[in-house]
Amino acid sequence: VESFTLQRCLCRPEFFLQAWAANCRPPASPAIFVIDLNGHFVTSIATHLQAADGVVKPTLVVFNTTGTQYLDNASCSFTFDLAYPPEPGSLPIETIRHAAPEHPLR
What we know:
Elements: E1 2-3, E2 9-10, H1 13-19, E3 31-37, E4 40-50, E5 56-63, H2 74-83
Antiparallel strand pairs: 1-2, 3-4, 4-5
């Protein structure tokens, strides 16, 4: 993660999260991220939005200027998880194995 707050810093995600002050994170403050999608860049805002039913949910709004759909890109998921990391121990630790997909060159 490359950060430009206070001083430019390239660091591992866990160090970025330690240095990211609570008053600069959602919901206290929206966060802007530029995401590299293999050479194409999109801008995103991590914020909390209120749904029609009144529930406020953490959201990553991605601004894309092309016709290509990038929401399934792993970098977008990573950015959401970076902005809203799960609490330690909140997720069950289990391994799910899926069958390997058929490949025409096998």
